Amino acid sequence: MWGNQVPPHPLHEARMRDVGMREPHPHVTAFPRHRVPASHMSQILILMAKQPAAGQTKTRLCPPLSQAQAAQLYAGMLRDTLALAHHVPGVQPAIAVNPAGAEGYFAELAPDALLFPQGPGDLAQRLAHVTGAAFASGARAVAALSSDVPMLPVVYLRQAFALLAQYDCVLGPCEDGGYYLAALRQPAPTLFTKVTMSTPNVLRDTMAEAERLGLRVALLPACYDVDTPADLARLCADPAPMPATRAALEALGDTVA
């Protein structure tokens, strides 16, 4: 998600042993018809998403993909990651919308999800804005999730919210040195804005800022995200269900063979 390569990290607090098991996420591409009860909206899981468009999404996969194919693949990944978000009990799914004006697309894609504009600025500013808006809406626990991890075991998301009962911040390390998830139980805008994104040190620097803020941090198991042709090859071989992603890969045929 938000980094480039894996640094060794002497990270403090807990890497939870009991979330190391891989739990396949549900074989679903449709979302529940009914909104999570208002009593559960104190926990919000926000998907950082972009409307699929040729030349605007997953351009680092070109080549081997064309720009249109990259957008097609991202659309499948987006659906599967949304499906994950809809299978975390007691949590309200939400989408951080990008670009402005894409609300109609996302409202049709996930009619029960809350929609938050990502706002202007770089990724760090948008993460700070979106998580702050979720807390301002009344949430007591907020997690921001990458849309590049359709293979993620849903148990990791469930564990993230469970850990917030004991920790102030939960991070899901990405194998490129960033993270695929950041969960908080209080606003902490500088956790994002004091960190230079898209570097190999995103996770390390985020941990340092959390320590400066006095936040107790727990770590989920690491996962890869899909940014590069090497990641694409790994995705093709991944046994995780991700039905919409799988359908998009099959449609690409020999391009990803």
TrEMBL record:
Keywords carried by this UniProt record: Transferase
SUPFAM superfamilies found in the cross-reference section: Nucleotide-diphospho-sugar transferases
Record-level Gene Ontology MF annotations: transferase activity
Pfam family, one: DUF2064
Record-annotated membrane-spanning stretches: none
Ranges in a coiled coil: none
Protein name per Swiss-Prot or TrEMBL: Glycosyltransferase
